[in-house]
User: Fold this.
Amino acid sequence: MKKLSRNSNSELVDIVSDRIGIHESRLTIAVHLDRRNFSQGYEKMQSEKLQKVTAEHRETYERDGIVFVKGAFDNRWIELLLSGLRRIQNLPDEQICDLPDSFLENDPLLQREIESIKSSSAAERSHYTEQSKGFIRYKYMYWWAPEFRSFIQNSTAAETVADVIGATSLRFFVDAIFLKEAQCSTKTYWHADEPAWPVRGAQVPTMWMPLLPVDAKLSSLEYIAGSHREQVSPQPWPNTFNAKMADQPSDRPNFYDWEERRDDPDVRFIAFDMEPGDVVILHPNMQHGGGANLHPTQPRIAYSTRWFGDDVVWDPRPECVNTPGMPLDKMPKGKPVDQDDIFPVICRRDSSTDQLTASRAG
Ligand SMILES: O=C(O)CCC(=O)C(=O)O
Assistant:
């Protein structure tokens, strides 16, 4: 395989098209990424918190189940994550989602999922099918892509999230990239994340951050303000790899399609114009969906990180997501998450000062 060059867009386009086959909007991504300067020495990179979380952010999160935090990260982090993404897009298939052997040996469900991701062809990585054209997902990067791991460990993501949700400490849970190419008509179906998590607790937020600009009308996800307070029982059937491999029980409904209430004045749909560095933080029961990328030329690339706060206990169910290092059948139901090596505590609140301090692996 030819070596990736950073110097010439046309060379990069040749190399990427060589690797994945000609696909115009996919090439747009490569060009976008190539125009940026990539940071070096990211292992030691620390950043200051640019935007302080305020009482207003916390109130909004509590009321709406979602809050927009403008300018939470500086451009160095965005460049690092983009460079990580570009690197992994050019890895051979077998190096995609290359998790530690010890995780896979003990977890047949995870093994099945990872085999499926690895065996996808380069252009069809992870769920890239005719039905979901131009929608690519990468998962579990914390465990196999150092740029993403560095962001989790060394940025102030954990403090920002902990401040918003009022946690006394915050553990990392899982992460994923959601990439929609320019003119990708695939919508994210309306759902909440909670039924997919193998835990119970309100403090399992997601921080969703775009790595390229997002336009509220063209490419943003949408959210239903206040929907986090409505509990549906029994829980809707999630769209996880494990759930897709199983038969949906007859007593488990699908998620409600909020399009049906598009014109209902009692339902508040929210979407945001976002710049790289801005984030939204979502309650696990927040209904969200949409987000086809109608932009004519620009991909929509989002990085989602999930976190565990104070009230989280294991609740393994066969339809839940796989969690590297912690097989579903080994989760101690009802017990708090305390596996520091797999779900590291990234920050803690000092009880005397009420300040969050880093508690990072380094
Ligand atoms: O970005 C997307 O399209 C989907 C993201 C999502 O549903 C999530 O992060 O929970």
